[in-house]
Amino acid sequence: MKRFTKYILFSITLFYSTAHAQQRIITAGSALTETVCALGDCDKIIASDRTSLYPASIQQLPSIGYRTGINAEGIISLKPTLIIAEKDYVDDAVLQQLAASGIKLVIVDRKLNVNETKKFILQIAIALNREAEGKKLIAKIESELAEANAMLKKTTSSPKVISIYNRGTATVSVAGKNTFGDILAYVGATSAVNDIEGYKPLNTEALITANPDYLLMLSTGLESIGGIDGALKVPGIAQTTAGKKKQIIAIESLKLTNFGPRFGEAVKELVVLLHPELRAK
Question: What range does the record give for the signal peptide (predicted)?
């Protein structure tokens, strides 16, 4: 009887191990892709969307496209067993087609605050049968945030910051509420423009009036205009305290915008960049 029980347990374990090994995952949304990888299932991803650039290995996989360019036929042809998609990223009609095909769907309603970050990490972890790994990842983020808070207790400055999103000089926008700019609430800084929701075109006069101490940019955005020297050529920036002191800082783009597994890292990095007293010898 004992031998039979051991055999049954072994068979069940083998079944779940084999099923997990055969998982074929497609992700739609860079934060979700990064989370699947952080949980240990990067090798199960067979395709992803165009925004999923981290880890770099994902860029070698087939792309399902971007938002409205994503279609059900292309996804189904790849024979996935699981699709993890960000809410409102893929058209509802496409999701309905995918659901009708019998493919398991996990839809993540991602919002930009740490509690929601922990919530969607656990949601994905459960879907992947990686709940233990999910809890460890959440604990890591909480530990990093605790370290950031400990550093903030040693600071005396309270900088005003404007968060900038740009693609070269053709598109330069201020990132307001419900954007990556919300990270300022965790780093001992305040937004110099509290009346902006979402992304709004940069207004030279308003920028000078707001007079931020720092500008926060995505690393790819700053690189696309030629670094700090290039940023100073954007109308209005050179007239601000941030411009005069060349206090224009950048974080790796997806780390800053994803509010995902590396959120705690981003917060710690920003705390040091925004509070020079922490760097004083």
Answer: 1-21
223-246 tens-digit pLDDT: 999 999 999 999 999 999 999 999
Sign of the C-alpha dihedral computed for residues 259, 262, 268 and 273 taken in this order? negative
Token pair 């109308």 is at which residue? 235
Domain coordinates of the chain in residue numbers?
A: 25-110, 149-278
Distance CA 205, CA 28 (A): 38
Please name the helix (run of DSSP H) or strand (run of DSSP E) that holds residue 85, with its range, or none.
Answer: strand 82-86
CA gap 217, 84 in Å, rounded: 28
DSSP state of 177: B
Q: What is the pLDDT of residues 105-130, one digit of tens each?
A: 999 999 999 999 999 999 999 999 99
Q: Give the torsion through C-alpha atoms of 120, 122, 128, 134, to 10 deg.
A: 130
Architecture per CATH, domain 149-278, reads as 3-Layer(aba) Sandwich (3.40)
